[in-house]
C-alpha cells in the first residue's frame, strides 16, 4: 500500500510554523492585550523568560570550540565588521528617511535591527545547502552572538540614546542583570548542565520559542494599551518593507563581492554572505524588551519583518549556489570534517 505524502511548502519559501506562531501572537495581543494585573504578571514572566533565555545561550555556547575557530580569524573579523560596523552605519543612514518614509519610532527600530548579532542556526543551514564552509559559519555565528551580548546594548546606548523613544542610560543596569549575568552564569555552569541540555535539546527548544512568544505578546500588548499602533499606517509599513529590502540587498551584495575582493575562496564567501547579512530574531527580541520597555513593540517590528525576508531571500540564493559547479579542489579533497554537511532543515529560531 502506497504511503500518501503530506503536502509541503516549496523549499524556496521557508515560512516556518514558528513564524505563523509569531504572527498569531501579535494578533492575540492586538485583540486581547494584557491590562492591569494581567499586564504586571505578563511583564514579570517576560523578564524571567529573558533571563532564562540568556542563561541557556550561555550554557550552550562552547567557548573552547569558539576559541578553536580563531585560526580563521580573517573570516570572523569580516563577519563581525559587517554585523557591528557596516550594518550600524547603514542604520544611521536610514535617519534620512524620517519623516518622509519612516516615523522616528520605526526608524529607531530599523536602527536597532542593524545592531543585533547574526544568526547561528539558519546561517549554518544556508551555508550547508550552498556547499560553503560550514565550520566557519558555526564559529562566525557563535562569535557574533557572544560579541552581541556586549556590543548590541553598548551600540544601542550610543546610537539610540536620543532617538529610542524613552531609551536612556538607565536600562544598562537592567541589561547587566537580565542579559549579561544569566549568560555568564550559564557559561560558568556549562560543565555541569551541558549534558542535561544536550539530552533535552528538543524540550528546551520549545522553552526557547515559548519564551520568545511571551516576550512578543508582552511587548505588543504594551503597544496596544499605549495606543502607539495608530502610528503604523499601510504607507509607513510599505516604506519600512522597501527600506529593509534595500538594506538586505546591499548587505548580500557587499558580503559576496566584498569577500571576493578580500581574496576569500568560494566556500568562505558563502559563509561570509550568510553569516554577515543576517540578523538574529532570538537574540534581538529579548534585548529589545529590556532596552525599549513600553516602546518595544514598534522596535521589534522591523526585526520581525526583516527576519522573514532574509529567510526567504537567502533560501533562494542558497539553492542557486548549490547548483554551482563544484571546484576540483573540493571534489578531490575528501575531507568531510572541513566541508559542507548534509542539508539540514532551515530553522527560524535565531
Number of helices: 15
Which regions contain 5 or more consecutive residues with pLDDT less than 50? 1-10, 162-167, 328-349
Form type: globular
Helical coverage, percent range: over 70%
Main sheet record: none
Tell me the total number of β-strands: 0
Provide the β-strand percentage band: under 5%
Q: In sequence order, what are the helices and strands, one letter per element?
A: HHHHHHHHHHHHHHH
Distance N terminus to C terminus?
A: 40 Å
Radius of gyration: 20 Å
Question: How confident overall, as mean pLDDT?
Answer: 79
**Would you tell me the structural class of the helices and strands?**
mainly alpha
Describe the structure.
The protein has 350 residues and is mainly alpha-helical. It has helices spanning 17-31, 36-60, 63-68, 73-93, 104-115, 121-129, 134-159, 171-188, 190-199, 201-226, 234-261, 266-276, 281-292, 296-322, 328-331. Helix 6 (121-129) packs antiparallel against helix 12. The longest helix has 28 residues, at 234-261. The chain is globular. It starts with 16 loop residues before the first helix and ends in a 19-residue tail after the last helix. Residues 1-10, 162-167 and 328-349 have low confidence and may be disordered.
Which labels suit this protein?
15 helices; mainly alpha
TL;DR?
This protein has 350 residues and is an all-alpha fold. It has helices at residues 17-31, 36-60, 63-68, 73-93, 104-115, 121-129, 134-159, 171-188, 190-199, 201-226, 234-261, 266-276, 281-292, 296-322, 328-331.
Amino acid at each position: 500500500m502506497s504511503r500518501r505524502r503530506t503536502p509541503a511548502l516549496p523549499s524556496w519559501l521557508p515560512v516556518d510554523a514558528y513564524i505563523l506562531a509569531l504572527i498569531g501572537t501579535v494578533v492575540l495581543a492586538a485583540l486581547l492585550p494584557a491590562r492591569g494585573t494581567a499586564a504586571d504578571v505578563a511583564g514579570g514572566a517576560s523578564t524571567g523568560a529573558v533571563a532564562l533565555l540568556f542563561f541557556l545561550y550561555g550554557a550552550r555556547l562552547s567557548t573552547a570550540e569558539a576559541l578553536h575557530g580563531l585560526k580563521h580569524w580573517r573570516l570572523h573579523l569580516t563577519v563581525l565588521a559587517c554585523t557591528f560596523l557596516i550594518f550600524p552605519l547603514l542604520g544611521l543612514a536610514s535617519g534620512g528617511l524620517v519623516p518622509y518614509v519612516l516615523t522616528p519610532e520605526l526608524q529607531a527600530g530599523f536602527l536597532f535591527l542593524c545592531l543585533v548579532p547574526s544568526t547561528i542556526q539558519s546561517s549554518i543551514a544556508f551555508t550547508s545547502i550552498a556547499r560553503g564552509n560550514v565550520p566557519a559559519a558555526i564559529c562566525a555565528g557563535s562569535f557574533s552572538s557572544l560579541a552581541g551580548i556586549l556590543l548590541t546594548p553598548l551600540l544601542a546606548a550610543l546610537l539610540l540614546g536620543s532617538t529610542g523613544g524613552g531609551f536612556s542610560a538607565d536600562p544598562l543596569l537592567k541589561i547587566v542583570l537580565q542579559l549579561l549575568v544569566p549568560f555568564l552564569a550559564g557559561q560558568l555552569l556549562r560543565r555541569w548542565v551541558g549534558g542535561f541540555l544536550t539530552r533535552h535539546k528538543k524540550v528546551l527548544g520549545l522553552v526557547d520559542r515559548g519564551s520568545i512568544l511571551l516576550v512578543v505578546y508582552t511587548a505588543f500588548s504594551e503597544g496596544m494599551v499605549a495606543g502607539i499602533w495608530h502610528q503604523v499606517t499601510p504607507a509607513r509599513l510599505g516604506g519600512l518593507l522597501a527600506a529593509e529590502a534595500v538594506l538586505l540587498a546591499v548587505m548580500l551584495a557587499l558580503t559576496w563581492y566584498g569577500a571576493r575582493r578580500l581574496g576569500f575562496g568560494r566556500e568562505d564567501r558563502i559563509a561570509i554572505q550568510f553569516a554577515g547579512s543576517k540578523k538574529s530574531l532570538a537574540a534581538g527580541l529579548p534585548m529589545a524588551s529590556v532596552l525599549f520597555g513600553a516602546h518595544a513593540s514598534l522596535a521589534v517590528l522591523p526585526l520581525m519583518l526583516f527576519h522573514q525576508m532574509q529567510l526567504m531571500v537567502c533560501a533562494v540564493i542558497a539553492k542557486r549556489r548549490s547548483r554551482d559547479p563544484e571546484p576540483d579542489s573540493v571534489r578531490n579533497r575528501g575531507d568531510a570534517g572541513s566541508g559542507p554537511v548534509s542539508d539540514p532543515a532551515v530553522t527560524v529560531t535565531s
